[in-house]
Amino acid sequence: MASDPGLLRLAAGLRTVAAITLTLAVLALLRADVSHLVAGAITAMVATFAIREKQRGAQAITLALGLPVALASVSLGAVLHSRVVAGDLFFVALIFCAVYVRRFGDRGTALGLIGFQIYFVSLFVGATVSALPGLCGVVAVAFASSALARFVLVPETPAGILERLRDAFRARLAQLVSAQLELLDAGADDSEKALAALREGTARLHETAMMIQGRLEDGTTDAAVARLVQRRVADAEITAERLGLLLLTARSAERADTLTLHLPGAPVPEGGRLPDGDEATAALRRDLEALRLLVLRPVSGSAGTGLAQVRNRLLGYRDEESLPKASPAVQDVFRGIGESARSVLGLRIALDGPQDESDDTPSTARSREELDAEDAAIDAGEEAAEEAPTGLDRPTTRAALQVAVGSSLAIVGGEFLSSQRWYWAVLTCWIVFINTASTGEILVKGYRRLLGTVLGVVAGLLLAGLVGHHTWPAFALVLLCVFAMFYTAPLSYTLMSFFVTAALGVLYTLLHTYSLSVLVLRVEETALGAACGIIAAAFVLPVHTDRRTNDLLVTVLDRLGDVTEAAVDQLSGGPPVELLDASRELDQALADLRAATQPLTHPITPLRGRRNTARYVVALLETCAYHARSLAAMAELLPTHPSIAADPRLRRAGRRILHNIGAIAARVADGRAAVEVEAGASLAALLEVDVPGTSRYGRITDRVLRHLQRLDEAVVGLARPLKVPVRAPKR
Question: How do residues 702-729 score in pLDDT, each as one tens digit?
């Protein structure tokens, strides 16, 4: 459940294998020949994986529209089989259109993919006009089998996927608590390993929260339920990450830097293991175990009374009088455990409905009252207006032109290598452009595909020798490779390419065209296609990696500024606004930037300095996002929590942060912009009051100031790697 959130990869693999198996079974009953079996298997696979819509009705419409597109594509492939020049020109035009229609969303992407891949199938099996009626029947059988597999054999509903994602979130939250336990017990020798596990657990929890966010609209009954689940997931994520930071601080001589949780290779804070004989340390270990138990098990059933007592004890840490005797840093960890227990309680109520309240203590009852008040505020809130999606005309057109030029080069070069199997170069050129947006991303994807192909050729040799020309054992191996391909695709593009090539070796054996020279040609065509894609990306309307990362960096900074400004304004007494959606937009922008920097951070990059800089900048931005999310979450608590009240002086403290974010964004967008980042005294000093005798902080909690201070430090820290001048404070 934790390794495959929502069981999405498992379902994709099983659905595709089921569609292929059904197709082969029907065609075998109809006594189809091997070429038709191969065409049917590939068509069923394409008809299954091409559709990406979340609603079942939309999936059915796209599948129905895909059938005539597939029939037209295979018919044109058969008609143009003997007309080389006309066929090549049509193939290039088809490739351009297949990429261009992506601007119409998931349906356009699916139909373009079906059109291209089915034309490729006609080339693969050597379709002719005389064989066209039989091939059209094979395509119809494959689409019917795909529909049966999708809607009957391996059905999925948005609500079911969301429910499994919730379970995955709980599992990953429990794993993160386990990683925190390992850090608590880690000595000097294994502290680096424990900290790496903590980083990984934090990142995996955040990934699952983002997946839930993407499924809320389709998987919940109404907007109020979606906002409630969104709030509770965000609370659990933030409190779990904060608990890790508090634990790091307790192990060190000074407060731990948030950057430590996001930067691979960052040193472990000085200090080390807490004293083994200390009663507070033993209590921490016990309570972290108890927190993990609360995450995984509901407080009900035969063990409900015992778990309720555990929950009550942990929630009691939110009251100062319940804290064990320990150093201030260790007491902060107990407070963090109490806040995490409260977030788990809120998550249980939001996901599982009302809970048994018979064993509640006063502290537990207070937590429930706070959660109920927050829920009421969420229900009463107005849904934020969504902006209409803007057309991405230029990126779509650019990609279509690039892949058309690259495919033309691949056709010409592929003909020189082989007049029979030149289309492998075109397929590789097409694939390296999917889900890529810069020259660097295409280069890395091409490298990964070539590596997976080379390894797959070796596996293909072994598998082909194993099955020989035995049809059904060969198809069984192909099914295993297809399942592995879909199961590993989100994890490793190299592994996916490996399984594709291994399966192709077996298919060539079935078509009696297998030889070592064919598999070597497959490697050559793959290298050629990747090279043509890289050349097209570099010379046809190029989008260099630096330009793309800079554009995405500006977007991240803009989203960071939006969230910070809205949170500070609300904490200062401004009107309430929807902050969690803005926070998730920041997270999505950061995820896009992280993906775009992969060419810069890839192990094969020769520019070590740029790799380290890119990692450091992304880690700093993740640190900024954590503090901005925390501020947004606290700002949304203002209407319901008397301990958090608005203070107009926060606008003065937030002004410098917003100025610095804007200055960095301006400098990244235009390297000649005359801007400076302002450094100065701590933000707490900016809250000094003008009237003698007035309370310094009013009712602003120390935690708000801490997040603001750390956000300010992280933003100023971005200036150095991004080469933005820093102005010293005025004296």
Answer: 677 788 888 888 898 888 888 888 876 6
Residues 6+ apart with CB under 8 A from 48: 15, 16, 19, 146, 149, 150
Asked whether the beta carbons of 361 and 316 are under 8 A apart, the reply is yes
Q: What one-letter code names the amino acid at 25?
A: A
Residue entry with tokens 């175990």: 289
CB neighbour list of residue 337: distance below 8 Å, 6 or more residues apart? 243, 284, 287, 288, 291, 314, 317
For residue 540, what are the CA distances in angstroms to 439, 528, 544?
A: 10, 18, 11
Whole-number Å distance between alpha carbons of 452 and 129 = 35
Instruction: Write down the pLDDT at residue 304.
Output: 58
Residue with tokens 């407080």: 299
Identify the three-state secondary structure at position 252. strand
- Give 650-699 pLDDT, tens digit per residue: 777 788 889 899 999 998 888 788 888 887 766 655 555 444 444 444 44
Question: pTM for this one?
Answer: 0.82
Pairing of strands 677-678, 726-727: parallel
Cβ count within 10 A of residue 641 = 14
3-state helix/strand/coil string of 368-428: HHHHHHHHHHHHHCCCCCCCCCCCCHHHHHHHHHHHHHHHHHHHHHHHHHCCCCCHHHHHH
Percent of the chain exceeding pLDDT 90 equals: 21
Residue 221 region, left (φ>0) first, then alpha (ψ -120 to 50), else beta?
A: alpha
Helices (H) and strands (E) in the chain, counts: 26, 2
Alpha-carbon distance 136 to 40, whole Å? 10
Structure token pair of residue 517:
């020279």
- Return d(Cα 309, Cα 312) in angstroms, integer: 5
The per-residue DSSP string of 575-590 comes to PP---HHHHHHHHHHH
- Per-residue burial over 277-297, b if 16 or more Cβ lie within 10 Å, else e, is eeebbebbeebbebbbbbbee
Half-sphere exposure in the Cβ direction for 388 (13 Å, CA): 2
User: Which residue intervals of 220-355 are DSSP H helices?
Assistant: 223-251, 279-296, 304-316, 328-352
Planar angle of CA 300, 305, 306, nearest 5 degrees: 110
Distance of CA 621 to the CA centre of its chain: 16
Residue 644: count of CB within 10 angstroms of its CB: 19
- How far is the CA of 597 from the CAs of 435, 494, 533, 553, 715, in angstroms? 14, 18, 19, 10, 19
Query: What is d(CA 13, CA 633) in angstroms, rounded to the nearest whole number?
Result: 38
Query: What is the Cα–Cα distance from 563 to 99, expressed in whole angstroms?
Result: 34
Q: CA nearest 500: which of 10, 72, 88, 117? A: 117
State whether the Cα torsion 110-116-119-123 is positive or negative. Answer: negative
The two structure tokens encoding residue 611: 């790799």
Per DSSP, 483 falls in state H
Quote the crossing angle between the two packed helices 105-124 and 56-79, to the nearest 10°.
30
Q: What is the pLDDT of residues 140-199, one digit of tens each?
A: 999 999 999 999 999 988 889 999 999 999 999 999 999 999 988 887 778 888 888 998
